[in-house]
């Protein structure tokens, strides 16, 4: 992946003092999620017919298919699941989450659930926490 970046990017990173890292800190399964998403997109692109279309057009069609045309068992598309409000019963519920830096379990309240993570408020700060580090009370 790093070899594919152009020298222009590296110059920009150096100029802005940006350290380029890959993966998601303290969440090794995060990279798996990214790789699976890439694989799914490639599979949809491979299934498309009509090879005369531009790559940009093919990508737009694939993303449209993935985000708006695939429904789950409740009949909701990914777009509907992303934008619809979650049930209030699931929000603001008390939880304990593990602080990865100190390995201490801390109390908090869920502000939002996502796929594999939750947005948790401790009262002092708001954090994105992997769901495997959350215990619901």
TrEMBL record:
Q: Quote the Pfam families the UniProt record gives.
A: IN_DBD_C
Organism the protein comes from: Cricetulus griseus
Q: Cite the Integrase catalytic domain residue spans from the record.
A: 1-86
Which residues does UniProt assign to the signal peptide? Answer: none
One example GO MF annotation: endonuclease activity
Q: What's a BP term from Gene Ontology annotated to this protein? A: DNA integration
Describe the location of the Integrase-type domain by residue ranges.
93-137
Record bears the keyword Chloroplast: no
PANTHER family cross-referenced by the UniProt entry: ENDOGENOUS RETROVIRUS GROUP K MEMBER POL PROTEIN, RNA-DIRECTED DNA POLYMERASE-RELATED
- List the Gene3D superfamilies hit by this protein, alphabetically: Integrase, C-terminal domain superfamily, retroviral, Ribonuclease H-like superfamily/Ribonuclease H
Keywords tagged on the record: DNA integration, DNA-binding, Endonuclease, Hydrolase, Metal-binding, Nuclease, Nucleotidyltransferase, RNA-directed DNA polymerase, Transferase
Q: Which InterPro entries match?
A: Integrase_C_dom_sf_retrovir (IPR036862), Integrase_C_retrovir (IPR001037), Integrase_cat-core (IPR001584), RNaseH-like_sf (IPR012337), RNaseH_sf (IPR036397)
Q: What is this protein called?
A: HERV-K_7p22.1 provirus ancestral Pol protein
According to the UniProt record, which residues make up the DNA-binding region?
93-137
